[in-house]
Every structure is written in structure tokens, then in C-alpha cells.
Amino acid sequence: MKVRILLALILANSFLMLHAQEGKFGYIDFNATLRRMPDYIVAEANLRNIQSEYQEELERSKREFERQYIEFMLEQDHLSASIVAKRQKELQLLMDNNAQFRDNVQMELDSKREELLVPLKKKLLTAVSEVCTELSLDYVVDTGKGTYLYINQEKGVDISDQVGAKIGIEKRAEKVVEGGQPVLDSVDNDNKQ
After folding, report:
1. Nearest-angstrom CA–CA distance, 164 and 44
2. Where does residue 60 rank: exposed (0-12), middle (13-18), buried (19+ CB within 10 A)?
3. Exposed (0-12), middle (13-18) or buried (19+): which is 101, by Cβ within 10 Å?
4. Beta carbons of 155 and 25 less than 8 angstroms apart
5. Cα–Cα distances in Å, from 53 out to 2, 45, 46, 56?
6. How would you classify the pairing of strands 139-142 and 25-28?
7. Which of 98, 91, 93, 99 is nearest to 70 (CA)?
8. Residue ranges of the domains in the chain?
9. What is the pLDDT of residues 30-76, one digit of tens each?
10. Is the model's pLDDT at 16 over the cut of 70?
11. Which of 38, 39, 40, 141 is most buried by a 10 A CB count?
């Protein structure tokens, strides 16, 4: 019985290895492609606008704390111990509230960023799926994650340009760097001279 199970496992493993060797894969840097999307630039601009509004309020709160702190420092020698203790508690409360507000702002910004990126990621994943179907690819490796050790470019297909074309990104220019690995840069007006 054990021999049959072992033989079945060996045969299944051999079949999977043979099938994996026949598979065709693509690769793309998902996050780099996401950052090149025109809609991403708009989303980042929206996020910066929201962030600047919060930043103004954070600065106002900071100035208010500093004003009250300076007043306290100038007056504390002339105040009774109970008033000094009360003002110290007020300053501590104000400082704690400012820190809590700063933390809440960061959480809200992170949430808003994710909310703005969800439709963009969905659009990019749809484009990746369409390109994989068109090129008959079995799977795609995200090179941006850095989890691959080697990509045989003769067996794999860089789908970045095809995906970019589907979502409105200009074609990239390729340059070779140390080790002979290609690094792809977007073609933009800054690089043209």
C-alpha cells in the first residue's frame, strides 16, 4: 500500500515537473507600472492636496501649543503651585491631543491612498490578465517584489510594454546596467535632451 502511494506521488511529481517545464511565463514590475499610470499621477496629486490641508491644521495646532507653552514658561514663576500643575496638565493634554490627531491624520491618509489605488490596481490586474491570455502565458512573476533569483529571458516574456499599452502608458526605453540585466526606464521628456 505504501509503495503504491509513493509511486503515485513520484508519478504526480514527475508530471508536474514536466508540465512546469513546458509552461510559459511573463514578468512585470507591478508597482513600477502602477506608478507610471496617468491615473496614478492624478491620485497622488489628490492625496497631496488632502495632505496639505491636514498639514496646515497640524502646523496651526503646533503653533498654538508653542504659544501656550511660552506663555506658561514666562508666567510660571508668578503662579501658585496648583495653577502651575493645572497648566502643565493642560499643556500635556494639548500635546497628547496633537499627537493623537497626527496619528489619525496618518491613518486617514493611508486609508485614502488605498481607496484611490484600488481601482488602479484592478485596472492593471485586468490588463495583465488580458495580455497573459493574448500571449498564452501560464503565469506572471512580479519582479518588483525581488523574490526571484533568476529569470531566463529566452523563456520568459516581459509584458510591461503590452500591459502599459492597454492602460495608456508610453513604451519604455531599455538600458543595460551592471551584470547585463536590463533595467527599463519610462520614456519621458526629462530623459530627452
Report:
1. 19
2. exposed
3. middle
4. yes
5. 69, 13, 11, 5
6. parallel
7. 91
8. 24-186
9. 999 999 999 999 999 999 999 999 999 999 999 999 999 999 999 98
10. no
11. 40
Residues with Cβ < 8 Å from 23, sequence gap 6 or more?
A: 138, 139
- Report the alpha-carbon distance of residue 176 to residue 190 in Å, rounded: 19
Q: In 3D, which of 190, 163, 168, 181 has the Cα closest to residue 26? A: 163
pTM to 2 decimal places: 0.61
What's the grid cell of residue 32? 513600477
Residue 34: count other Cβ atoms within 10 Å of its Cβ: 20
**What is the C-alpha separation between 101 and 41, in angstroms, rounded?**
27
Residues 6+ away with beta carbon under 8 Å from 37? 120, 123, 124, 167, 168, 169
Task: Provide the 8-state DSSP code for 184.
Answer: E
Residue type, 3: V
Output DSSP code: residue 170.
Answer: P
Q: Write the CA distances from 51 to 60, 104, 119, 121, integer angstroms.
A: 14, 12, 21, 22
Distance CA 152, CA 155 (A): 6
* Per-residue pLDDT at 193: 35
